[in-house]
Write a structure and sequence with these properties.
The chain is an all-alpha fold. The chain has a single domain, classed as Hypothetical protein af1432, CATH 1.10.3210.10. It contains ten helices and no strands.
């Protein structure tokens, strides 16, 4: 059940104006800013595409505003995968699938990272399994595509600026 590029465009047209849960930007602003930061860093086309689409899974359901406030992890990083297979290469899908675990990793290896997360990102982190242990962090970063997911996650954090794009 692959999604077409036209379908993605329609999703952003229909739901892109919605508030990115718990953040001061819309879903479309967040997507565009994430891709923008990837372009600024000189990332590959595949990784910039992943940055643009990494939260598309949020647009595929209707769980209301800020599901994490209700103790719900929407597993958006996995929900979108079946729709993207066959349309985008594994390098795009892998970065999208791993961007949540990249947050868990960064919290484990960068002492100040957790405190810098937005309130909603901290709340969702608990629902997503919490901060990795050292062994989990070591295992994660050894996975193919994990370093790209970490880069994407850092752009994700920067992509919450209402005055940008």
């Amino acid at each position: 059940m692959a999604i077409s590029l036209d379908d993605i465009e329609k999703l952003f047209e229909q739901k892109g104006h919605e508030q990115y849960t718990g953040e001061p930007v819309t879903m479309l602003q967040h997507a565009l800013q994430s891709a923008f930061w990837g372009e600024q860093e000189g990332a590959s086309d595949a990784l910039v595409t992943a940055a643009l689409l990494h939260d598309l899974g949020h647009l595929l359901h209707d769980l209301g505003d800020t599901p994490s406030l209700h103790g719900v992890d929407d597993v958006h990083q996995y929900r979108v995968v079946p729709f993207l297979r066959g349309v985008f290469p594994d390098s795009v899908i892998d970065a999208i699938q791993r961007h949540v675990d990249a947050k868990r990793y960064l919290c484990a290896v960068r002492p100040d990272y957790h405190a810098a997360l937005s309130e909603d990102s901290q709340r969702s982190l608990k629902l997503q399994g919490g901060i990795f242990s050292k062994a989990e962090a070591d295992s994660f970063i050894a996975e193919p595509g994990a370093s790209d997911a970490v880069r994407l996650r850092l752009w994700d954090d920067l992509a919450k600026q209402p005055e940008l794009l």
